[in-house]
Every structure is written in structure tokens, then in C-alpha cells.
């Protein structure tokens, strides 16, 4: 490679290195200014938040005092709440048992009542059949006697004449 070309290449490399250093210096300057602005903003924010933080510290101190003063009361309330909860659970369990027992007793009683009603209905049906038999049997007998007496009177009124076949058939149908 000729010497002129080599010098030009080295010169361009040196110029590029110089430009790079300048560019880094500019960037470093920009970053430095941004850091300064952030530091100023942080000091300003610290100035604004310091009274708030002081106030919060006071509130926290008061809260700690209140908690310390009422610690025994809070413990007592917690203990009583636990006792009430335990008693409520026990009562709820007892009520559940009573409801179950009442339900089973009611079911047993309903079955007993159903059986009693069924027996009563059967007895009423039997009594009805007995009354029907006791009343209807004599009524049928009386109807038969009345029909016989009626036939006798009809025969006597006709003067011993024989009845026509239609009349006889009608009389027979009445006895059937």
C-alpha cells in the first residue's frame, strides 16, 4: 500500500477518534445538566414533603400511643367476641338438633295419624256395608212380599183368569 493512502487512512481514523471524544463530552455535559436538574427537583420535593412526613410521624406516634393505651381493651373485646362466637355456634348446633328431632317426631306422628285415618275409613266402610246389609235385606224381603200380595190381589181381581204372556213376563222381570 502506498504511503500516502496509509497516511490518509490514519488521519481519518484520528479525526474519527477526535469526533468521538467530542461527542462523548457533549453527551456527558447533557447528562451532567440533567443530573443537576434532577438534584434540584429532588431538593424541592424534599422541601415540600418534609412537613408532610413530619406530620405523618406525629400521627403514627399518636396512633402508637392510642394502641398502647387501648391494648387491654382490644384484647378483652377480642376475648369476648370469641366467647360469643363459640356460644352462638353451640346454640346453632342445639337448634339444629332440636329441629331434626322435631322433624322426625312430626314424621312419626304423621305416619301414625295416617294409619289411624286408614283404619277409621276401613271401619266406616265395614259399618256402611253392615248397615246396607241390615237395612236392604229386610227392604228386599218386604218388596218381595208386597209384590206377591199385589200379584195375589191382581189375580183375585181378575177373577182367576190367566194372565197374558206379556203381563207374566213383566211380573217376572220385576222379580229379577
Write down the overall mean pLDDT: 85
What is the helix content? over 70%
Question: Structural class of the helices, strands and pairings?
Answer: mainly alpha
Biggest β-sheet strands, sense, barrel:
none
Write the element-wise H/E pattern from the N-terminal end onward: HH
Number of strands: 0
Please tally the helical runs, counting DSSP H or I stretches of 4 or more residues.
Answer: 2
Number of domain modules: 1
Distance between the termini: 153 Å
Sequence stretches where pLDDT stays below 50 over 5 or more residues: none
Beta-strand percentage? under 5%
Overview of the molecule:
With 176 residues, this protein is mainly alpha-helical. It has one domain (3-175). It has helices at residues 3-157, 165-175. It starts with a helix and ends with a helix. The model has no long low-confidence stretch (mean pLDDT 85).
What's the short story on this structure?
With 176 residues, the chain is mostly helical.
Topology:
Blueprint: H1 3-157, H2 165-175
Supply the key terms.
elongated; 2 helices
Amino acid at each position: 500500500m502506498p504511503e500516502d493512502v496509509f497516511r490518509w487512512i490514519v488521519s481519518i481514523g484520528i479525526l474519527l477518534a477526535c469526533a468521538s471524544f467530542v461527542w462523548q463530552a457533549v453527551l456527558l455535559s447533557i447528562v451532567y445538566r440533567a443530573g443537576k436538574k434532577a438534584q434540584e427537583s429532588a431538593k424541592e420535593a424534599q422541601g415540600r414533603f418534609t412537613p408532610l412526613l413530619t406530620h405523618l410521624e406525629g400521627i403514627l406516634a399518636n396512633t402508637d400511643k392510642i394502641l398502647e393505651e387501648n391494648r387491654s381493651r382490644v384484647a378483652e373485646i377480642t376475648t369476648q367476641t370469641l366467647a360469643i362466637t363459640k356460644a352462638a355456634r353451640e346454640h346453632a348446633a342445639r337448634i339444629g338438633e332440636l329441629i331434626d328431632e322435631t322433624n322426625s317426631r312430626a314424621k312419626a306422628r304423621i305416619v301414625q295419624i295416617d294409619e289411624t285415618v286408614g283404619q277409621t275409613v276401613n271401619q266406616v266402610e265395614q259399618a256402611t256395608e253392615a248397615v246396607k246389609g241390615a237395612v236392604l235385606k229386610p227392604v228386599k224381603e218386604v218388596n218381595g212380599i208386597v209384590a206377591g200380595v199385589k200379584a195375589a190381589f191382581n189375580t183375585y181381581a181378575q177373577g182367576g183368569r190367566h194372565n197374558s204372556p206379556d203381563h207374566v213376563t213383566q211380573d217376572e222381570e220385576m222379580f229379577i
